[in-house]
Design brief:
It contains 6 helices and 3 strands; from the N terminus they run E-H-E-H-H-H-E-H-H. With 149 residues, it is mostly helical. It folds into 2 domains: 108 residues, Rossmann fold (3-Layer(aba) Sandwich); 36 residues, no CATH class. Strands 2-1-3 form a 3-stranded parallel β-sheet. Helix 1 links the parallel strand 1 and strand 2. It is globular, with a radius of gyration of 16 Å. The protein starts with 9 loop residues before the first strand and ends in a 15-residue tail after the last helix.
């Protein structure tokens, strides 16, 4: 476990099952942690396309339109969120997170999802909108950032 020897003062998760399961594995190595649920870390809402596989959606609406919805920045699935929407809520979280880290003088760990991780990576890695939208986040990846607050 890559985070077992890290000194972490707070752990954040989205409240979704996958996020809590991942965090549970990390928490085994930390005593009396502060655990905070924040809905801004939620996975992107795909609206009427929620629960369908990538292949099902591509077959239904066509590969070109699917690519725009899946990797586009401002394109929204019916009754869903665009990446711009996700980025807006994640950036609000980041702003508050940085203030929290500065005030409490703590390291944090965040258990989030592929689409909510993209804005984190854009912010901390100084990526363009296009680069962010094409990112692939491997399920086993841990992204570590050092900050001067």
């Amino acid at each position: 476990m890559r985070l077992k020897d890290k000194k972490i003062g707070a752990f954040f998760h989205s409240g979704l099952k996958r996020s809590k399961q991942t965090l549970k594995e990390v928490l085994r190595f930390h005593q009396n942690p502060r655990v905070i649920c924040d809905k801004r870390l939620m996975e992107r809402c795909y609206g009427k396309l929620q629960g369908k596989t990538h292949l099902q959606v591509a077959q239904r609406i066509g590969v070109e339109k699917y690519d725009l919805l899946h990797r586009g920045y401002k394109n929204k699935p019916p009754q869903g969120e665009s990446m711009a929407d996700v980025e807006k809520r994640v950036l609000g979280f980041i702003k508050e997170l940085l203030a929290y880290m500065k005030k409490e003088k703590v390291n944090v760990a965040i258990s989030a999802h592929g689409n909510s991780m993209r804005p984190f990576r854009r912010y901390f890695e100084k990526l363009s909108e296009k680069e962010m939208c094409t990112l692939y986040n491997d399920y086993e990846s841990v992204y570590t950032y050092s900050l001067e607050l």
